[in-house]
Amino acid sequence: MTTMYAALLRGINVGGSRKVPMADLRALLKNLGHEDVRTYLQSGQAVFSSGHGDEESLAAELAHGIERHFGFGVDVIVRDHAYLRAVADACPFPAADLEPKQLHVTYFSAPVTPERFGQLDQAAFLPEEFRLGDRALYLYAPDGLGRSKLAEQLARPRFTKGVIATTRNWNTVLKLVELTAPAG
């Protein structure tokens, strides 16, 4: 059975380093045997269909391919349409009432528990807030991610230790749901 997936690459094409041209990424995915390959924006999203592997093996395969082709390592998370749809549907914030720049999702490579964030005084960052979901963290940042003090704290190694974490704005979250949706 063929499934649609999104590959989320962490930390590419930012600040002039770790350049991964999207045409090269598409070619790499096709060379790995995947079909229906498309990319979205320059910041590290690709969608593809595959009839083999699971999310973890597909992520490892792509990360290995990127390292071989480009000469540097990139953290990769792969998620299928059903997961991406479930994350969008489970948003604990009123997404329809917010500007997309105010709402973000951090995808994790593995489940994270509330205890991981237990030492963080959330009240000190209000009106910014976060909530945990299934291998995801929803962040409400009314002034945007670039000005978010809470996002700065959440990106610290003590909160991301042992997992890959990569953040996308709400527009991208929804676009990935759309791009991975089954045809028809």
Q: What share of the residues lie within helices?
A: 25-40%
CATH T-level fold name of the largest domain: Alpha-Beta Plaits
Which outline best applies?
A: globular
User: Which range does the strand content fall in?
Assistant: 15-25%
The string of secondary-structure elements, in order, is: EHEEHEHEEEHHEH
Low-confidence stretches: none
For the largest beta-sheet, the strand count, sense and barrel status come to: 4 strands, antiparallel
Computed over alpha carbons, the radius of gyration is 16 Å
Q: Output the number of helix runs.
A: 6
At CATH level 2, the architecture of the largest domain is: 2-Layer Sandwich
Structural classification: alpha+beta
Number of domains: 2
Organism: Streptomyces dubilierae
Protein name: DUF1697 domain-containing protein
InterPro entries: DUF1697 (IPR012545)
Pfam family, one: DUF1697
